[in-house]
Amino acid sequence: MAASATPAGKPRQPSISQLRAFVAVAEQLHFRDAAAAIGMSQPALSGAVAALEEALGVQLLERTTRKVLLSPAGERLAARARTVLEAVGELLEEAEAARAPFTGVLRLGVIPTVAPYLLPTVLRLVHERYPRLDLQVYEEQTASLLDGLAHGRLDLLLLAVPLGAPGVVEMPLFDEDFVLVTPRDHWLGGRDDIPREALKELDLLLLDEGHCLRDQALDICREVGRTEGTPVTTSAAGLSTLVQLVAGGLGVTLLPRTALRVETARNDHLATGDFADPAPARRIALAMRAGAARTEEFEAFAEALREALRPLPVRVARG
């Protein structure tokens, strides 16, 4: 058979229909049976195989009056054609999964001052309501999370806002107050009317550079007029270490209320105090890329998460 080529001298691209017809004939070695197997008329099947041979410039079949045989080239290319059809089938299955909401992989980035306290609620929600969702969690600081979102490494973020990042849509979940954590015998321990101005002169312990909670605490201090010269001890990479330093009498710190039970419940050397209204607070939100393909799904997830968070000591945001 003469080869049929493109102007560049290369075989033409075969169609999926042609490959299906050829594989059916290769498996059945009979045109009528092959046509019945894939629901195609016999003339259409014969035409598809002939068109494939013409497109590739290779004879695939040896036809006689009684039987159909694969040529040597047909033997080799039949295996390749099966592989192509299997890959196409997998692609279609993946596309079907992508069309179905709350299926496939969801890569969620979470800041360290949120992860230990909210992840139990998030994981329970996913397990109970979205069992086909493959949730993958990444705990990182805010700058790293935003970089991962921008470059497609992450799909959704759970963190403190506002971010002020271009191309990022914030979906508020809740607001929560900060609580003052002190040594057990501290004069502010146990009070429920602590003025913000008390932060002006306290020995304040904060997280290391890079944590948004540190920046939020410093913003609160600046709001109440704490001077730049007032020392701030920074020596903890996580809230658990920070609380241990407070218990050891090195100073006081601010904790978000959702962290309070986990970090202070079993330590007899600590006391807590609430600020007078309006208490300093932070807002937690989900964040996604503007124009994300899964926008509707992420918005529905945010609404479901708001409901799941209601038992926590927070003020849930309206959707």
Automatic annotation (TrEMBL):
Keyword tRNA-binding: no
Organism encoding this protein: Streptomyces mordarskii
Keyword line: Activator, DNA-binding, Transcription, Transcription regulation
Domain HTH lysR-type: residue ranges: 14-71
SUPFAM superfamilies registered for this protein in UniProt: Periplasmic binding protein-like II, Winged helix' DNA-binding domain
Protein name in the entry: Probable hydrogen peroxide-inducible genes activator
Gene3D superfamilies according to UniProt: Periplasmic binding protein-like II (3.40.190.10), Winged helix-like DNA-binding domain superfamily/Winged helix DNA-binding domain (1.10.10.10)
PROSITE patterns: HTH_LYSR
Pfam family, one: LysR_substrate
Similarity comment: Belongs to the LysR transcriptional regulatory family.
